[in-house]
């Protein structure tokens, strides 16, 4: 197996059934890897938004009274909301790890077109999703 980047229209990506033998198949594969990279960046930013929301649910004062005795008018205590955000962050993390490994393994095919698709997708994803971070 060649261990340097090369330009070719043939490659096997991630699974044996994802075998590319034509220029059109390579273009479609590059598009799929590009979209996976964009999705990876979106999940990464989504995790950051969830973290900020989770931190906002924590009480401002860490006195014993605010932690032990929640207010009677609050039907959904902050501790419960914080746990929900934590569970959501955990799920986002799992998705992020899976997407990251998929993109990494695709790049490890050493096909330069796939590598460029991953780089462009990551750049495009960051460029599009990062401004949305301030709105979350």
From TrEMBL:
One of its GO terms (cellular component) is late endosome membrane. It comes from the Eukaryota. Pfam families: Ctr. It is a multi-pass membrane protein. It is found in: Late endosome membrane; Membrane. Keywords: Copper, Copper transport, Ion transport, Membrane, Transmembrane, Transmembrane helix, Transport. One of its GO terms (molecular function) is copper ion transmembrane transporter activity. The chain crosses the membrane at residues 20-43, 90-107, 113-133. Belongs to the copper transporter (Ctr) (TC 1.A.56) family. SLC31A subfamily. This is Copper transport protein. It comes from Patagioenas fasciata monilis. The lineage of its organism: Eukaryota, Metazoa, Chordata, Craniata, Vertebrata.
């Amino acid at each position: 197996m060649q261990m340097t980047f090369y330009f070719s229209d043939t490659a096997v990506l991630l699974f044996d059934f994802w075998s590319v033998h034509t220029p059109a198949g390579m273009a479609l594969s590059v598009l799929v890897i590009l979209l996976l990279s964009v999705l990876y960046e979106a999940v990464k930013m989504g995790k950051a938004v969830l973290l900020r929301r989770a931190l906002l649910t924590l009480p401002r004062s860490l006195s014993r009274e605010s932690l032990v005795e929640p207010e009677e008018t609050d039907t959904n205590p902050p501790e419960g909301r914080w746990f929900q955000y934590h569970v959501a962050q955990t799920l986002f993390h799992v998705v992020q790890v899976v997407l990251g490994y998929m993109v990494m393994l695709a790049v490890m095919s050493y096909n330069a077109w796939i590598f460029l698709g991953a780089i462009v997708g990551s750049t495009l994803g960051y460029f599009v999703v990062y401004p949305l971070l301030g709105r979350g």
